[in-house]
């Protein structure tokens, strides 16, 4: 018999909020550091994992930037991307939109071309060999200057075809989106789409700024939107996607526990929320683990999972035809799934015919 858990496992999924450097598992960190003749301040994989205790966003970012220092060669960027893609292939993810943090590498003397070429080739190989489609989004680190972001944007221009959009990440508080108005204006002029982390640790006001001043197509995190009813109304009316990362939010103490997370509340209110992993090597899981954990904590049913996945397909940066193909694939999957014995006599059904099983 199918359960919500098997639905989560089998349903085709898309991920829209994943920092590729945040998928660096300790095992690969050691392998790459050895290959590059570097030493780590840890003796074992277990020691690394033990260090992953965070109290807020900054405490995580300090360790995260330290970990990614092992990445130096094009092969390193290829390997980390490839490892992530293999993981999500096993989780039935068919489309992913990946962030990378160029400044965290260029500041160490790594050429922009080395970073983007390694990542791009892994994405191409996964498309050909695993059938995973993807997009690449370049993030500016908001704690750095607007001049540094502008310089990074210029470095990206020769790779325009490989990068769909620009984003904003790192330490949110004290670095409002409006700091980056000229860079995002230039990025839009050059044809990039825009997104921004906003309302993760920061207030609803930062979400307003991202929407109105940076013209973003999606909000990354955005969980603080619920503090502003007028904002929620706009996000619902315009179906502006929120890329929510449940395990991340608990690890960084945005919520005290998953059972206190507002994902279900946001979904029920009609917001276009999606489930994502953020930094899976640091926060305890990839997309399926996020779905499983939040399903259990918030008692999500089949219909909730279906809607979360559908939202993510609708929120992708794919073209209209590619998006429709994904949505068709989802509908086909759901109708086969319903036929395969999900239905039990005493179940209650929602209006689409999915039984409201509680597991
Ligand atoms: N970079 C990687 N993960 C991040 C997060 N959760 N918030 C801001 N910047 C990040
Ligand atoms: Zn993030």
Could you explain the architecture of this structure?
With 359 residues, the chain is of the alpha/beta class. The chain has a domain of 241 residues: Metal-dependent hydrolases (TIM Barrel), CATH 3.20.20.140. Helix content is 48%, strand content 13%. Strand 6, helix 11 and strand 7 form a beta-alpha-beta unit. Helix 1 packs antiparallel against helix 15 and helix 5 packs parallel to helix 7. The termini are close together. The model has no long low-confidence stretch (mean pLDDT 95). Bound molecules: adenine and zinc ion (ZN). Zinc ion (ZN) binds next to strand 1. Catalyzes the hydrolytic deamination of adenine to hypoxanthine. Plays an important role in the purine salvage pathway and in nitrogen catabolism.
How far apart the termini lie comes to: 11 Å
- Strand-residue proportion: 5-15%
Total beta-strand segments: 8
The secondary-structure element order is HEHHHHEHHEHEHEHEHEHHEHHHH
Low-confidence stretches: none
Name of the level-1 CATH class of the domain at 2-23 and 95-108 and 136-340? Alpha Beta
Category from helices, strands and their pairing: alpha/beta
CATH architecture of the domain at 2-23 and 95-108 and 136-340: Alpha-Beta Barrel
Continuous helix count: 17
């Amino acid at each position: 018999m199918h359960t919500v858990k098997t639905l989560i496992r089998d349903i085709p999924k898309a991920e829209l909020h994943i920092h590729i450097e945040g998928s660096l598992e300790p095992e690969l960190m050691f392998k790459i550091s050895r290959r590059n003749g570097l030493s780590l301040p840890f003796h074992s994989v277990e020691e690394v994992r033990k260090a992953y205790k965070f109290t807020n966003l900054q405490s995580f970012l300090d360790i995260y930037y330290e970990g990614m220092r092992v990445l130096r060669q094009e092969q390193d960027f290829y390997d980390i991307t490839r490892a992530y893609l293999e993981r999500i292939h096993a989780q039935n993810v068919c489309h992913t939109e990946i962030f990378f943090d160029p400044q965290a590498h260029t500041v160490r003397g790594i050429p922009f071309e080395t970073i983007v070429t390694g990542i791009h080739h892994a994405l191409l190989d996964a498309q050909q060999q695993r059938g995973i489609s993807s997009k690449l989004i370049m993030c500016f680190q908001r704690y750095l200057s607007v001049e540094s972001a502008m310089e990074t944007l210029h470095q990206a221009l020769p790779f325009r075809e490989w990068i769909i959009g620009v984003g904003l990440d790192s330490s949110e508080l004290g670095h409002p989106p409006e700091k980056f108005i000229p860079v995002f204006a230039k990025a839009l002029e050059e044809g990039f789409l825009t997104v921004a982390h906003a309302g993760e640790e920061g207030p609803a006001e930062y979400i307003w700024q991202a929407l109105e001043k940076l013209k973003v197509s999606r909000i990354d995190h955005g969980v603080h939107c619920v503090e502003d009813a007028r904002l929620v109304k706009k996000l619902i009316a315009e179906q502006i996607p929120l890329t929510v990362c449940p395990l991340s939010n608990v690890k960084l103490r945005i919520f005290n526990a998953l059972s206190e997370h507002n994902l279900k509340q946001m979904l029920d209110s009609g917001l276009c929320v999606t489930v994502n992993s953020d930094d899976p090597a640091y926060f305890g899981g990839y997309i399926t683990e996020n779905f499983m954990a939040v399903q259990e904590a918030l008692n999500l049913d089949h219909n909730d999972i279906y809607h979360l996945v559908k939202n993510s397909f609708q929120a992708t940066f794919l073209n209209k035809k590619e998006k429709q193909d994904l949505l068709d694939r989802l509908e086909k999957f759901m109708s086969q799934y319903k036929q395969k014995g999900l239905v039990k006599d005493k179940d209650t059904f929602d209006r689409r015919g999915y039984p409201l099983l509680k597991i």
